[in-house]
């Protein structure tokens, strides 16, 4: 029997950073999957985890800082998957990387990443994922030990393996992302990716040559010391999940740990930064 979900459609003004805050708060009360839309975000929660008062604890809806309108409806999982298939379009990055679903044709580029379009973050469509792929394209990852922190669908870990990295750890605090990353690593025939469910506490006694962290500004700032502690000397730190105006705050924090800025990629005011330790 197919699971039944409650689908909420939120229209958010201004869209950023309100959408990011809203998603974080919805995740805290049990929403398990999200799709960014032109006007805001669509969020899903299983009907068995839902109740009429589910949004009462969502502070941003009553804060008065943003205009957020919403409606909700019940949807069967079969319809939900069909909606993904209708809206998920293949993309290409710099003419070298194809990111597609299993039902799309292979574009015959140098790298072909197949992602099942479930609700985990990281299909390549969001600016931050796209930019992180660009950063990884520019790196020599052969035999490099890599961490994908906040792995979402596992797309960046998968791409790192395609570029010769191993071993690779992929970590996400979200159960849905953890399971989806395992599925996608298997789908891309990856042999060197270990997926873990958890947070920065899992980094104790770990060490890496490259750390990829596409999360959000506050988590990045809080976890910077842990990244520094487990990154080898001359290691590479790739950060995204924040905006151009957040760069001074990020730079101030990374400078505490001896990182040197190397490169910035910008896309629609989102940025992805490269540092060397």
* Overall domain count: 2
CATH class of the largest domain: Alpha Beta
CATH superfamily of the largest domain: Vaccinia Virus protein VP39
Query: Mean of residue pLDDT?
Result: 89
From the N-terminal CA to the C-terminal CA, the straight-line distance is 51 Å
Q: Portion of residues in helices?
A: 25-40%
Overall strand count? 14
The total of helices stands at: 8
What proportion strand?
Answer: 25-35%
Unreliably modeled segments: none
Predict the CATH topology of the largest domain. Answer: Rossmann fold
Radius of gyration of CA atoms, rounded to a whole number: 19 Å
The largest sheet has its strands arranged as 10-9-8-11-12-14-13
List keywords for this structure.
277 residues; 2 domains; 7-stranded mixed beta sheet; 4-stranded antiparallel beta sheet; 29% helix; globular
